[in-house]
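Run log, item B.
One chain of 213 residues. Sequence copied directly from the ordering sheet:
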Amino acid sequence: MYQVIARKYRPATFSELISQEHVRTTLENAITQRRIAHGYILSGQRGTGKTTVARIIARCLNCVNGPTAQPCGVCPSCLEVTTGSSVDVIEIDAASNRGINEMRELRENVRYRPARDRYKVFIIDEAHQITNEAFNALLKTLEEPPEWVVFILCTTESHKIPTTIASRCQQFSFRSVDFGELVARMRWICEQEGIQTDDEVLAVLAQAREGSV
């Protein structure tokens, strides 16, 4: 079955991630040393790897060999995170699930242990769109979370995350991807797909993306 290029070549490990070395190094060290936070905020412009890194963290934490900074990629947990079918890694789009009722439902879900894996990971995309009332409902859970829960909030507008939430999470700011790295990545994808191109075309595309993969 055909798979779009954005999904086909999405990094599945920290070693495949382009740019964001500061994020990668810190998270790899933290996971290796078992210094795992219960809440993370990943912020930056679109296309810099926030949701990708959130999924990599989930894979690292729940891999059969984990917690490990180098997930195997072949165990059921790793494969299910890749396909988005893991029952213990819950992805929530805050753009359409932003209200207090959704947060109360999430808070109820948090109480139950993972069905199979080591951690229950909640990835909340576009987290800045959650209402203030919903954030207040989430605050108590972030203050005293069960040991098996990890929250990862991804946002393009970190200034809209309430201070009460931000102060209880580790924060990582994603940079725009370097022009040269963008060109190199696109060149590599073209080679994998058997597409003929030249550096001038790739440079135009990279410039149009303004640091977004």
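Observations after the first pass:
- The first helix runs from residue 5 to 8.
- Strands lie at 39-43, 89-93, 120-125, 149-155, 170-173.
Flagged for discussion on Thursday.
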